[in-house]
Design goal:
The structure is a single chain. With about 210 residues, this protein is mostly helical. The protein has two domains: about 100 residues, no CATH class; about 90 residues, no CATH class. Helices cover about 80% and strands about 5% of the residues. Strands 1-2 form a two-stranded antiparallel ribbon. It starts with a helix and ends with a strand.
Length: about 210
C-alpha cells in the first residue's frame, strides 16, 4: 500500500461523497416535500460509500502506525480528517526516502576513502605524497562520517571524492586503459595531489593492497 494509492483512493472517495451528498440532499428535500422514502439505489450508495470510507480510514491509520505518526486528534471521523493525515504520511515517506538516499551516498563515499587507505608504495613505504593523500582522505572520511547528509552535502562529497576516484581508477586500469584516458586521469591526479603521486602511479610504484 503506497502513499500514491491512498491519495488516489482519497480523491476518488471525495468525488463520490460530493456526488452522493448532492443526491442525498435532493432526496431529503423530496422527503420533506412529499414524504417519499429514499430509493433503494441511494441507500445502497450511502452504505457502500460509508464502507469505503471506513476501509480507507483503517488503511491510513495502519500505515500511520507503521510510520509512528502521532495523531493530532482522535480517530478521524470524516473524510476531511484524512487529508492532513495522508499529507503527513507523504511528508514522512519523502523524508525517509531522502534519508536512505543520503545514507547510501555516505556509504559509497566512505568505501572510496577506505580503498584509498589500502594503497601502498612497495619501494618506499613512507612515500610522502601518498601519505599526504591518505591524510586528506582520512580528513574527508571524518567530515562525511559526522555530516547530517543533506542533498547539498551529498553533492559536495561527490566533488571532493573525484580526485580520489581518479587515483583509484588509474591503479585499477593500469595496463588495460588507453593512453589518452590514462593521461587525462594522471593530469587530474597531479592537479589534486601533486605530480610525484601521479608519476608514481604511471611508473607502477603504487598498488592496491
Amino acid at each position: 500500500m503506497s502513499i500514491d494509492d491512498l491519495r488516489s483512493r482519497l480523491s476518488a472517495l471525495q468525488a463520490r461523497f460530493s456526488e452522493v451528498g448532492t443526491c442525498a440532499a435532493r432526496t431529503a428535500a423530496e422527503i420533506a416535500r412529499a414524504g417519499a422514502p429514499p430509493s433503494e439505489e441511494l441507500l445502497a450508495q450511502l452504505t457502500a460509500t460509508a464502507a469505503d470510507f471506513h476501509t480507507l480510514r483503517e488503511d491510513v491509520l495502519d500505515l500511520a502506525a507503521t510510520r509512528e505518526i502521532i495523531l493530532a486528534n482522535d480517530t478521524p471521523v470524516a473524510l476531511r480528517d484524512l487529508v492532513p493525515l495522508v499529507d503527513a504520511l507523504a511528508a514522512t515517506s519523502a523524508s525517509a526516502q531522502r534519508y536512505r538516499r543520503h545514507e547510501a551516498g555516505r556509504t559509497a563515499a566512505l568505501h572510496v576513502i577506505d580503498r584509498v587507505q589500502g594503497i601502498v608504495c612497495e619501494d618506499e613505504p613512507a612515500f610522502a605524497p601518498l601519505l599526504e593523500c591518505q591524510a586528506r582522505a582520512r580528513a574527508l572520511h571524518a567530515d562525511i562520517a559526522r555530516s547530517v547528509a543533506r542533498d547539498g552535502d551529498v553533492l559536495t562529497w561527490a566533488e571532493r571524492l573525484r580526485p580520489f576516484a581518479d587515483l583509484l581508477e588509474m591503479l585499477e586500469g593500469e595496463g588495460s586503459m588507453d593512453d589518452e584516458h590514462m593521461t587525462k586521469l594522471s593530469e587530474q591526479v597531479a592537479e589534486a595531489f601533486g605530480r610525484p603521486l601521479a608519476t608514481a602511479v604511471v611508473r607502477g610504484r603504487l598498488r592496491l593492497r
